[in-house]
Amino acid sequence: MIRVLVCDDQALVRTGFVTILDAQPGIEVAGEASDGRAAVDLARRIRPDVVVMDIRMPVLDGIEATRLLAGPGVPDPVKTLVVTTFNLDEYVYRALRAGASGFLLKDATPAQLIAGVRTVAAGEALLAPEVTRRLIGRYAARVRPAAAPPGAAPQLAPRELEVLRLIATGQSNAEIAATLVISAETVKTYVSRILTKLDLRDRVQAVVYAYRNGLADPN
C-alpha cells in the first residue's frame, strides 16, 4: 500500500487529488495539509511514502517544505512529488534542487497523477523529457560554470558518462537502451553505478548534476 500525503492550499484541488488517489487500488491517502508547515509536521509524524506538494502556499511554500523533507542533509528523506503550472518554471527547478523526486503540471490527467505517485513511490524520478529540456536546461545554465570544469565527473567510465548525458535529456531507460543499442537492464545497471559514484539520490539529481557541471547542453 502506497501511503500519500496531499498538500495544497486550494481545497478544491486538494479534494480532487484525494478523491482520485483514494479510489485507486494500492494507494491510500494518509493525510492532508493546506500549507507547507503543516505538511512538514504531518509528514514527519505519519511518514508517508509520497508527498504530493503544491508550490505556492501560505505559511511555508512547497519549495522550502520539500527542502525540509527531502533536501540535502535530511537523514531519512520523504519522496516528494511537486505539482505546478508551466508559468512557474524557475520554481520547479528550485524544487528539484531542494530534493523533489519529480513534478507534474496541475492540468495533468488523473491517470498521470496516479502514475506519478506510483513512479515516485517506486524510487524513480518523474521527469517528462520535453519539460526536462525546457526547465532544467534553462535554469541550470544560469548556475553552472561558463565552461565545463576539467574532470567534472572523473569517477565515471566513458559509457557511464554517455548514459548520464542521455539521462540529462530526459530519456527513459528504454530510450537510452535504444539509443546505445544495449539492453534496458544494462542501462539500469549503469544508472545505479552513476548514482552511487556521484553520491546522488535519484535521476532528478543526476539531471541537475549534469547541467550544473557542464556535462549537458542546455540548448
Task: Please give a handful of descriptors for the protein shown.
51% helix; Arc Repressor Mutant, subunit A; alpha/beta; 2 domains; Rossmann fold; 10 helices; globular; 219 residues; 5 strands
Could you characterize what this model shows?
This protein is α/β, with parallel strands linked by helices. It folds into two domains: 2-126, Response regulator (Rossmann fold, 3-Layer(aba) Sandwich), CATH 3.40.50; 147-212, Orthogonal Bundle (Arc Repressor Mutant, subunit A). It contains ten helices and five strands, in the order βαβαβαβαβαααααα. It has a five-stranded parallel beta sheet with strand order 2-1-3-4-5, with helices on both faces. α6 crosses α10, α7 packs across α9 (184-197) and α8 packs across α9 (184-197). 43% of the residues are buried.
Question: What is this structure, in a nutshell?
Answer:
The chain has 219 residues and is an alpha/beta fold. It is 51% helix and 13% strand. The protein has ten helices and five strands; from the N terminus they run βαβαβαβαβαααααα.
What is this structure's SSE topology?
Blueprint: E1 2-7, H1 11-22, E2 27-33, H2 36-46, E3 50-54, H3 62-70, E4 79-84, H4 89-97, E5 102-105, H5 110-121, H6 129-143, H7 158-168, H8 173-180, H9 184-197, H10 203-212
Parallel strand pairs: 1-2, 1-3, 3-4, 4-5
